[in-house]
Amino acid sequence: MISNVKIVGAGSIGNHLANASRRMGWSVTICDIDPAALARTRDEIYPARYGAWDDAITLCAPDDAPRGGFDLICIGTPPDVHMKLAMAALDEKPAAILVEKPLCGPALEGAEDLREAAAQAGVRVFTGYDHVVGAAAEQAAARAASGDLGAIATLDVDFREYWGGIFAAHPWLAGPWETYLGFSARGGGASGEHSHAINLWQHFAHEIGAGRVTTVSARMDWVRDGRVEYDRLCALHLESESGLIGQCTQDVVTKPTRKSARMQFEDGFVEWQCGAEPGIDRVVEAADGAEAVTTDISKTRPDDFIRELGHIDACLENGANSPISLDRGLDTMLVIAAAHLSDSTGRRVGIDYSKGCRPEALSTE
Fold it and tell me: According to a count of CB atoms within 10 Å of the terminal CB, is the N or C end of the chain lower?
């Protein structure tokens, strides 16, 4: 169904999405307000990652980009402008919009407005939490939901990764102070940049029938040095609608990286491990008293985006629900916002989903 894609933002994520789109055989236009970013894409980032520049990709400033006629518009800019750009993309009436994670900052400006506008326009919106549609996460979720290991006892997710790799992929940035990453209020810091962990916790909770997160208790370790203001560690205790209790930890300091999820059941466990070895995601399952069964899934970083775009294309074709839907992404934003409120007040925070993705959906307990 998708054949023509516009990507807003020529940074690292924009290049990944462009390459994935081209691998899918789609036409690609990349636009960015910074001519230097477009030049870096053509001359440095894309050829360094994928072997050569692809002359079939169109590069242009936003004012020069075509409007309308795109099946998919991808928003790959800093989070603090996602909502504005996504609302503008709705006016072009694509079949779908993909907004990178996190959707916005923890103040939730414009989040519910986007949901309402997208519903009115009849445009499907997806969020860039690509790990939940990865092959390893799908297998882990299927095994967890099988019922073979008894009732769920607890769920823990870690996304602990020193963010030096991010800056290695963006060598034109001297440090976090030159980007949104150094400002949690703009969607950076551990709470925003590594919110894959919160999203994975929510995803696995849904898959095992535990429902949405209803209560959040969080502590953050802050860096405030006059140039930046971000949380380098965000540690959360979560409770779901069914009463499932677990933990979720995100940081930007851990070396070597640890990205994992463990679902402990009455009679065994299932683990998801991202990057267990270079180029390998892993699922480990064991029933009590039995030898663990390990499944290794080979993949590259480009594969993550190819699979994500393939998933979106399939959803548009068959109308299926998606774990990377806008609704799921907004649920993740509510947990991020609740974590900030909990840290600032020292109290647990409840989430009332009936009030939408707005600050008034959160209340201290």
Answer: C
281-212-266 Cα angle (round to 5): 65
Q: Which tokens is 59 given? A: 């590069």
Dist CA 56 CA 2 (whole Å): 17
Instruction: State the chain's maximal CA–CA distance in angstroms.
Output: 64
Crossing angle (nearest 10°) for helices 82-90 and 111-121: 10
CATH 3.30.565.10 corresponds to the domain 131-300+324-364:
no
Could you read off the pLDDT of 224-276 as tens digits, one per residue? 999 999 999 999 999 999 999 999 999 999 999 999 999 999 999 999 999 99
Contact 109, 356 (CB under 8 A): no
Report the C-alpha gap between 349 and 329 in whole angstroms.
19
Among 3.30.365.10, 3.30.360.10, 3.90.230.10, 3.40.50.720, what is the CATH number of 4-100? Answer: 3.40.50.720
Rg of the chain (C-alpha set)? 20
Residue at 309: amino acid letter:
L
- 35-94 pLDDT, tens digit per residue, is 999 999 999 999 999 999 999 999 999 989 999 999 999 999 999 999 999 999 999 999
| Residues forming beta bridges with residue 220, ordered by sequence position | 234
Strand arrangement of the beta sheet that strand 58-60 belongs to: 58-60, 27-31, 4-8, 72-75, 96-99, 124-127
What's the number of CA atoms in the CB half-sphere (13 Å) around residue 350?
A: 7
CA 78, 79, 80, 83 torsion-angle sign: positive
Residue for token pair 């400033």:
61
For tokens 């516009």, the residue is: 6
The DSSP symbol for 350 reads E
What is the residue-averaged pLDDT of the chain?
97
Decide if pLDDT at 30 tops 90: yes
